[in-house]
Amino acid sequence: MKVNTMADMMMNGETPEILFWVGCAGSFDQRAQKITKAFATILNKTGIKYAILGKEEACTGDPARRAGNEFLFQMMAYQNIQVLNGYGIKKIVTTCPHCFNTLKNEYPELGGHYEVIHHTTLLQQLIDEGRIRLKEGGSFKGKKIAYHDSCYLGRANDIYEAPRKVLEALDAELVEMKRCRSKGLCCGAGGAQMFKEDEPGNKRINIERTEDALATGASVIASACPFCNTMMTDGVKNKEKEQEVAVLDIAELIAADLA
Amino acid sequence: MIQQVLFAALSLTAIWLFARKAGEIRRNIFLGKEEDFSGNRPQRWRNLLLLAFGQKKMFRNPLVAVMHFVIYAGFIIINLEVLEIVLDGLLGTHRLFLAPLGSLYDWLINAFEFLAVGVITVCVIFLCRRNIIKLRRFISKDLNGWPRSDANYILITEICLMFLFLFLNASDQALQLRGNPHYHPAGPFYFSNFLVPLFQNTSESTLIGIERSCWWLHIAGIFAFLNYLPYSKHLHIILAFPNAYYARLDPEGKMKNMPAVQKEVLYAMQPELAPADAAPPAHFGAKDVFDLSWRNLMDAYSCTECGRCTTACPANTTGKLLSPRKIMMATRDRLEEVGRNINQHKSFVADNKSLLHDYISVEELRACTTCNACVEECPVSISPLEIIAELRRSLVMEESNAPQEWNSMFSNTENNFAPWKFAPDERDHWTQEMAS
């Protein structure tokens, strides 16, 4: 399966329906690459004409901006918007809620106007339209799945239902943590925390959140953000539960059950 | 007649004092930078109705919401009775509204008594929650000292005011029963009626004394309360309304843009666009209250220190120093200090202090995950996150004060276009593994 870049498409005189914004985690982080590949597999299977920017993609500037480095953010935004506008991009899908939030909410006033959707929303649409078909009695049938709300999807952008609707399609038993939806507890990675040690305290945030998840008795913790995925995976390892509990992105869950 | 003059003097003094302090607060709020919150009026009015009048966010915890609503409704509706009290006081009349309202009057006063008893009950429960049950957000060290007493004083005052109202009606009733012509037949009322037997053996002159004392203390108490508000967390009963009207309407995830930096980057990238006289901005982010927007400063005055933000904060929950409530309290404290400085010197005289460092520490700011839990929880539309973000901007861009890991993240982003140290050429390496 070949993944086309925008440059490839341009060369062949083609225009994709949608740009897949992979994000830095999805491009470089070994764990997150699996999410990227799962999502690309789904896109390939549905026959959607998509492309990536490839080497022309750069960090949206989200962590820099949230750490306080507005100059760096503006530089990254400027470059990305130049590239995106240069290709005349209209629609973007991304597997990272941080990229999603920045592209959707922060680029417009800098001159980057695109229709931006998160991959969970696209997956829900594709399932509703029947373009994604899942195996009968798939691998998650009857299993307990707890969905962890990503802050940048949930509170930041009011997307609570799409990921849950997608999970329902798996015929699994969806369980909720005591703190969920708009009350969902952060995994601890946002605001550039991913890139530094925790401040002094009595617990790491990802441990606190993993305890919420383990308390549900779920065998799968579903995430919709590569950073949440890392944090929850670390939490599960810390609790020595990696044999019993898997942390998987919603794209991975769907990809595993494609008919 | 003397009573009327005294009453007029008391009212005018109370209102004048309040107006003066309110003017000071307004001035302090507008020490903040301009920020445009006009536009989208229908949505703003809807927010005013739902968030302020309807207390929508409070209903995230329905039981507490209902209790809070009783105090709120009780307080607002019983203030209709205050209108009569004020007019009686000025005109020297007694129960002025009785004649024009007829039987409706008894119904109204009965309703007020119900509310008064409701308010007393809830205030007692709230005192228990704060002092006996000791909910985590109420025993937090954020509230040590004045803020904790402030909360208790308010509850106690409300209980006193409500009892004065009930005793006022009870003594009035007792005087009616003795046929005192000044006390027009009204009532008996549901709750104060139970108190009437207490006055069985009280002489008529003492009874008049009690009735007058209750009346005076009730209204004086209300005026005192009015003047206490500006110094208290209780100011939210006024500022919750403008704060809801000016609620932020953008998605919570959107950070405030810095057009000055945007322009500077644009001119660096496309020098041909730069005007010859482009002056760099004076400074970046917020170091002190002057650098925040008026909206942030109104937030600070609107905060009622309930601590829902801090309870929801992932950093605070896991024992970090950050408390969004403390961020708001510190901002208000600093702003009040600046206000006093201005009162004293006519205009602000540098005091070698700033919100950043002197009131809010680097460690607190560093702990924030920007998860918006505090913003989501706030019943009165405050954003502690916006202040945290502005202070972080000052730290990083003015002081180059960032942890080493962040500096690496910055340089990776700048040089490798990713926050980690990976070669940009590897960005699409994963596609090769898709080939199979």
Automatic annotation (TrEMBL), chain A:
PANTHER family reported for this sequence: IRON-SULFUR-BINDING OXIDOREDUCTASE FADF-RELATED, IRON-SULFUR-BINDING OXIDOREDUCTASE FADF-RELATED-RELATED
The name this protein goes by in its record: Cysteine-rich domain-containing protein
Pfam family, one: CCG
Keyword Transferase found: no
Family matches, as InterPro entries: Cys_rich_dom, HdrC_iron-sulfur_subunit
Domain Cysteine-rich: 19-104, 145-232
Top-level taxonomic group: Bacteria
Protein source organism: Hydrobacter penzbergensis
GO molecular-function term, one example from the UniProt record: 4 iron, 4 sulfur cluster binding
A GO term from the CC aspect: plasma membrane
